[in-house]
Amino acid sequence: MKIGVLAYQGSFEEHALQVKRVFDKIGKGEVVPVKKTKDLDVDAIIIPGGESTTIGQVAQRMGLLDPLREKVMQGIPVMGTCAGAIMLSKEVTDAKVKNKAQPLIGVMDASIIRNYYGRQRESFEAIVDLEEIEGGRERFVFIRAPAISRVWGKAKALASLNDVIVMAQQDQILTTTFHPELSGTTIVHEYFLKMVKR
Ligand code: GLN
């Protein structure tokens, strides 16, 4: 299988490494960077963290945003982490800035609040219970993380931290507000790759 990682900014290398670790356990494949429409010939896509406004604007300028949305709507598995989760949500608000429109993929029945945890705690680590995906309690890092405030329709919460949703899924769309690529465990990538047809 061929896994594409959106490579405008954020942790391409770390995501690629996690995917390769999972390949060592289950299946085989390659990881490729995605920047242009021609790079979309992949079996699954990961949208990493970074700044969702920048990622959205660059994707739009590169002509990738609409074809990417189309691919996701056709059913390609996609995982968005942090800013990637923002990109995939239908409703985005900002904890500080009001009514700031930004280009989105906007396919998941989820409402997400950018920069939810505020400046003074831009980054923190927390133990997340992954029982829903048959994982254990794992430590993850949250970097200027958003919060999934609501899911509806076909989307459902997979993990929460202090009553705030930190991981959600809608069919083949998976989002996390934390960074599973910056973790010792590969459980989240493994769960995602199991969705990808071989
Ligand atoms: N705060 C960023 C945003 O709003 C997300 C942070 C991250 O991806 N680490 O896009």
Automatic annotation (TrEMBL):
Top-level taxon in the UniProt lineage: Archaea
Record GO biological process: L-glutamine catabolic process; pyridoxal phosphate biosynthetic process; pyridoxine metabolic process
Pathway: Cofactor biosynthesis; pyridoxal 5'-phosphate biosynthesis
Catalytic activity of the protein: aldehydo-D-ribose 5-phosphate + D-glyceraldehyde 3-phosphate + L-glutamine = pyridoxal 5'-phosphate + L-glutamate + phosphate + 3 H2O + H(+); L-glutamine + H2O = L-glutamate + NH4(+)
Residue positions binding L-glutamine: G50, E51, S52, R114, I143, R144
Chain's role: Catalyzes the hydrolysis of glutamine to glutamate and ammonia as part of the biosynthesis of pyridoxal 5'-phosphate. The resulting ammonia molecule is channeled to the active site of PdxS.
NCBIfam families noted in UniProt: PLP_synth_Pdx2
HAMAP family assigned: PdxT
Protein name: Pyridoxal 5'-phosphate synthase subunit PdxT
Organism listed in the record: Metallosphaera hakonensis JCM 8857 = DSM 7519
Gene (UniProt): pdxT
